[in-house]
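>> received
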Amino acid sequence: MTRIDGGLSTQLNPFGPDWSAGKVGEAPAVGQQVQQALFGRAKPPLLDPARFPELAAMMSQLYKVKKKLAAMAGDKDEDYLIALADGALAMIDEYGVIYVGAGFMAAHLDAPEVLVGALAHEIGHRPKRWNEYKTQRRLTREELLALCRHEETRADIFAGKALAELELDCQPLIDFLARIEDGPHPEYFPAAVRGEVIREAYEARRYRALARKKLFPELDRMTSPKGHLGEG
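>> returned
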């Protein structure tokens, strides 16, 4: 554990799952196993936003961005809720509640790219999607690790695309991931690899967005994140 500005504890490695012991008995659906691995962590204590007036402007900005990101993911704005929390960087639960640490937010008021990137990563998980996986079979640890790495990578790709569409630089998020890494973790790739994934997705989507804006300005106005841009 470490501490960031504001004195709140937080994990060094953000956006990754904690592992819980498997239940004895009938194997749950594959989707439930992945949900538990990715989103089954203990929820951090909630904080009253009224106690943090210095965060009000950023909270308002993140709510506006959330609406755009939900549309980009093909979801509804109400599928996600942002909650101010103690002791977290950013995490999402199986119900779409995104917990954002007050200390994390306070430390990055001048780096909205990091906060927006973290928010995009969490929305990129799209936890309700895992309910679609009904197959009941107990996954091995290796299989679950591979699925979680795949899911974490999908979320990183979505974060890169989102930053490009919102015309925000991806480098602050990449630097942040490298700065807080404290060692290898089996459930997701090293920060350097994650940075490459984010940048590749960012550059590809940025090229596409710029071309769309230049060649089809009317289409761009209708289908950018300010409208209802799809994930593809």
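>> The chain has a mean pLDDT of 81.
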